[in-house]
Amino acid sequence: MEEPTPHPLIVARITAGMTMEELVSGIRAAAGSRGLRSGVDEARVRKWQRGTRPSEESQVYIAEALGWPADIVRADDWPNWLPRTADGVVPLGPHSFVPALREALRTAMDRRTFFTISGTALASLAAEWAAGPANALAQAHQGKPVGEDLVAFLEHTTQQLAGLATEQRQHTATLLDAQLSTVTDLLEHGRYTPALGLRLHTLAASLSQTIAWHRFDQGRHTHASQHWIAALHNAHATGDHDLGAGLLSDLAYQAAWRSDHTTAAHILHHALTRAQHPAARCLLQLRLARTLAAQGERHSALRALAAAEQHLNDAGTDRPAWCAWVSEADLAVDSGQALLDLGDTGRAHQLITEGEHLLPPARDKTRGVFLAYRAASHLDLKEPEPAAAAATQSLLLARRIGAPRCVKLIDDLLPRFQPYRNVRGVPELLQLADEDRVLAA
Questions:
Q1: 333/340 Cα distance (integer angstroms)
Q2: pLDDT, tens digit, 9 for 90 and up, residues 279-300
Q3: Could you give the CA distance from residue 75 to residue 60 in angstroms, rounded to a whole number?
Q4: Fewer CB within 10 Å of terminal CB in the chain, N or C?
Q5: Under CATH, which number does the domain 1-83 receive?
Q6: Cβ(392)–Cβ(432) under 8 Å?
Q7: Side-chain-side CA neighbours of residue 432 (13 Å)
């Protein structure tokens, strides 16, 4: 039988570096600042830690005593709104998968983000993952039994949501959140066999990864990071090193997107130590090449591109689901983008154009990103008219499928179009971008 997970109030207090006495004093001080007197003592706090729900006022005092603003409190969701970390990263451990999921779900419910996760914390998590053994799968709890039919239903509906056409996925955020919350509750409170536990962890990892990409596309970076971290904990629990490496590469991709290439490179190097499948290693090497090229490390970037090409040739068709999409199109475009950063403009443009044409219709969001890359490569070649055409196509596609990340890529290119305001297609592009900004406001 698995040891019980510590109550979130205990975790939050320890994370805040507070003794029980200091927490009680903080709660009384929060009440006193309102001209009220709290009768809370250590015995009352222990009752809360054993399952008694504090009043809404007491929950506000708890939040303030822990150093968090009152509007983080969701009184009807006690104790799940409590923060479980100081820096947003739950350490890997034998019982860390539920706290990591709860942290992701809690952060997603915040009205605003109170912290950003540092590159140092993410690199440390990657190093911890690379060095440590996989966790044992969760054993049965003394809760209500979880049946195979329910797990199969959750797997099927999750697969259906993930398989919707790109433009329909923008409407599924609430459904995905509900699915993940249900799976988290089952992992924490359900009674299940090891085989069902494996499926629940795998499902939690898949859902968290999907939600992370949604949040990332919306520019909600802390929320995305938390969900990738939660997915990593659950992949780690199953011993799936390739999936764990892929989730770390997603965090690295996000870091590179935010121009933190040092963090991206650290994470990717750790991820490569345990990734085995050629398709997984191809994706990792492509992302490593991109971040090395952005740092101007030409020889290392070219070596990573060569390794990615070899791994893709070795990958075959039997691939993990999470990286089954990696293709010649991705190799071409990412190679081109790396070469663009290294100054090889002509070859870069050729590869980006080839890759964009190779992309299957089902990957519309990726097509929008690739079109933005093609627009940038045209600008580097001083070809504003085809650049405007590609950028316009990307913006229209992003508007249709609800992809703010594509819009951001084009917004970043707009200053480079200003010298070409009289070139055919450029005025229309600038007007379309203005319309998008008005709609966003």
A1: 10
A2: 999 999 999 999 999 999 999 9
A3: 8
A4: C
A5: 1.10.260
A6: yes
A7: 20
Instruction: Count the alpha carbons within 13 Å of 66 in the hemisphere toward its beta carbon.
Output: 26
Angle at 34 between CA 31 and CA 38, to 5 degrees: 25
- Work out the angle between the directed axes of helices 278-294 and 241-257 (0-180°, nearest 10): 20
pTM of the model as a whole: 0.81
pLDDT digits (tens, 9 = 90+) for 228-243: 999 999 999 999 999 9
Tokens representing 205 are: 């990892």
Q: Which two tokens stand for residue 421?
A: 């305001």
- The answer to whether 27 touches 58, Cβ cutoff 8 Å, is yes
Q: What does the alpha-carbon distance between residue 205 and residue 161 come to, in Å, rounded to a whole number?
A: 15
On whether the CB atoms of residues 385 and 425 are closer than 8 A, the answer is: yes
Give the integer Cα–Cα distance in Å for 302 and 182: 45
Contact status, residue 329 vs residue 355, Cβ threshold 8 Å = yes
Using the structure block, give the residue that is written with the tokens 């947003």: 88
Q: Per the structure block, which two tokens stand in for 406? A: 């594509």
